[in-house]
């Protein structure tokens, strides 16, 4: 059985990278289970302000309780970090001193327990409605249900290739389209069975579950994870005060490449410097305790003093 509680990845490293000073204003763009946020809040002390967002309103609701006991001003927002720029303007901050994003999902969203914040259809291990959105499915242009039930096979194959390098992309896409003959594909379990039956037997025993890549690709497409990340980095660099720091933790190479290139370009444009010439990665000890940490990479950008 997999863990159902999220373990914060690169906790000390990411918060250290922000170089939090008492009385600063820090944004945690991905509150999640509040691991990073609580440590940031502790370092901010009474005079500082933490602004924390998450697209998943369950994360916000669960975090409220945790912050009752800590001192600084904490402002929690159920928002997509794509909206970082407008949100900060709306709440009256021209600039902030540090911004953190720890991308992807938290364990509770995979848990299969609707009460605990699962129920998103992210996992092929539990049978749940197939939407795969971090936030309210109603606010997304399409969900995984739409991909499975109405996309053309070529479009499905394209996201499987581009977002997950799925080697059986076309085969899986055709099987999904063919399965519609038997009724709608409404759950993660149904989708996973279709994938499992469509791939060669050898692939079923190849180390990773045959549904892993398809589920990853659909989640990235539904949440426009790469587009959102680009918009976020641009807004974050804009909103950082002189000497402010942006720290981003990624979990797959597509995201890491975007962060690496955006930071390099910002440095070339004279906006500041890349603090992490090489990404910071978790220690062996952390990976042993939390295998999900194994693909994590932390990159940090320092905004120029005179920008
Ligand atoms: C890896 S978890 C963060 C864990 C957190 N740092 C902790 O220590 O508990 C990522 C969180 O980001 C949220 N998320 C993912 N994409 C988002 C987006 N575009 N906007 C806002 N929140 C997002 C997810 O709902 C999830 O709760």
From TrEMBL:
Location, primary (coarse class): cytoplasm
Top-rank EC class of the record's enzyme: transferase
Entry keyword annotation includes S-adenosyl-L-methionine: yes
Recorded catalytic activity of this chain's protein: cytidine(1402) in 16S rRNA + S-adenosyl-L-methionine = N(4)-methylcytidine(1402) in 16S rRNA + S-adenosyl-L-homocysteine + H(+)
GO biological process, one term: rRNA base methylation
EC number in record: 2.1.1.199
A Pfam short name: Methyltransf_5
GO molecular function, one term: rRNA (cytosine-N4-)-methyltransferase activity
Keywords tagged on the record: Cytoplasm, Methyltransferase, rRNA processing, S-adenosyl-L-methionine, Transferase
Highest taxon listed in the record's lineage: Bacteria
A GO term from the CC aspect: cytoplasm
Locations listed in the record: Cytoplasm
Family: Belongs to the methyltransferase superfamily. RsmH family.
Summary of the function given for this chain in its UniProt record: Specifically methylates the N4 position of cytidine in position 1402 (C1402) of 16S rRNA.
HAMAP family, A to Z: 16SrRNA_methyltr_H
Protein's UniProt name: Ribosomal RNA small subunit methyltransferase H
Taxonomic path: Bacteria, Candidatus Kaiseribacteriota
